[in-house]
Design goal:
- By secondary structure, the chain is of the alpha+beta class.
- 38% of the residues lie in helices and 25% in strands.
- The chain is built from three helices and four strands; from the N terminus they run βαβαββα.
- The chain has helices spanning 13-25, 39-45, 68-76, and strands spanning 4-8, 32-36, 52-55, 58-62.
- The longest helix has 13 residues, at 13-25.
- It is globular.
- The protein starts with a strand and ends with a helix.
Amino acid sequence: GICCIKVLGSGCKSCYQLYENTLKAVEGMGIEVEYVTDLQKIMEYGAMSMPALVINEKVVSVGRVLKPAEIAEIVEK
């Protein structure tokens, strides 16, 4: 199962959009979504471009604003 989802970003428009899309994708699933803007924490994941999507501490997407349907698909795998 999924314990946690994090959106890594600098606070830019596309990073925030990925966060919003992630919230929509997991709505009603009881999964917590965290928005991480702390550069130190982002570096720990080794994500070289923003925004990045982290599921269960594993980076699954980098540099793309995924649509809610795409995120839901990844979550359901």
